Amino acid sequence: IKKKGKGYTTIACKVERAGVLGAGIMGGGIAYTSAVRGVPVVMKDIAQGALDLGIGEARRLLAKQVTQGRIGQSRADAVLSSIEPTLEFNGFDSVDVVVEAIVENLNVKKSVLADVERRVQPSTVIATNTSSLSVAELGTALVRPENFVGMHFFNPVAAMPLVEVIKGPKTCDEAAARIAGYAMAMGKTPVVVKDCPGFLVNRILTTQFVSFVTLLRDGADFRRIDQVMEDFGWPMGPAYLQDVIGMDTSNHVIEVITAGYGDRMKIGFRHAVAVMAEQKRYGQKSGAGFYRYE
Ligand code: NAD
């Protein structure tokens, strides 16, 4: 999308085939959403178990679509077979975009991004789904930072309509446009935002998070808060949301954002989510968080 006077004009940026790095909560969801919208995916992880879980999640979501009568079984089978799992970089030399959704660790991401850049075409746009790391900093690992951009999905990917497209200082308009176009092809609404801690949506959510953990410290019952916010109209309450995101991920993002804005977003006490993260009580993925999961 290029600026033209006061409006915008769309430039050609079709994505025919995508690569996804990481088959976890986000990578699995991104691969499924891309494939179901007609863009085949090659999905790489370092663990066979993770690939199996990612494919299993896609299979579960497709079975739900079939049960609901939205697609037929043969279409579901075709979509599933358009997600190609790999432990190597098989097929990455023919993708138009790569979406990186591996562990939220700066050095690991930098080394994996540099590695994948050597295995794709020079024109391939590489995107990161980071929630909290700087796109500018991650881009320093790359030879072609102009082709690097943030593509921040929300959890669960298949259900959440917004995607933040984060331009780093060297990201070119064409790369951002291709990623915005890919988001639209996936049925999402892209919003181009600046590269700052929390980008846009997580900055807003953090203020709610601070109110939530402050209420808990004041003695409120998290189940009651969840119930009231669901009655208010939220699809889920703040405690359940933490269980879905994962206490480790959430706590890390909160730390980055609160540190990034100093007094403007200070939490001056040890809060429940940090304590649970320390105790490895991560939420749904570990079987217990605010709630217990069988
Ligand atoms: P996750 O732990 O569920 O999955 C990460 C996956 O990456 C694992 O399967 C792991 O095996 C794999 N992996 C690790 N190193 C790898 C490598 N070198 N190559 C390929 N795969 C590798 O994590 P997640 O929650 O899916 O988060 C992934 C990214 O998405 C993080 O950057 C996170 O900040 C971001 N994110 C998470 C959420 C959320 O709600 N969980 C929301 C938005 C963005």
UniProtKB/TrEMBL annotation:
Domain (3-hydroxyacyl-CoA dehydrogenase NAD binding): residue spans on this chain: 18-196
Residues annotated as signal peptide: none
Organism this protein belongs to: Noviherbaspirillum sedimenti
The 3-hydroxyacyl-CoA dehydrogenase C-terminal domain, residue ranges: 198-293
Protein family according to the UniProt entry: In the N-terminal section; belongs to the enoyl-CoA hydratase/isomerase family.
Name listed for the protein in its UniProt record: enoyl-CoA hydratase
Gene giving rise to this polypeptide: fadB
Superkingdom of origin organism: Bacteria
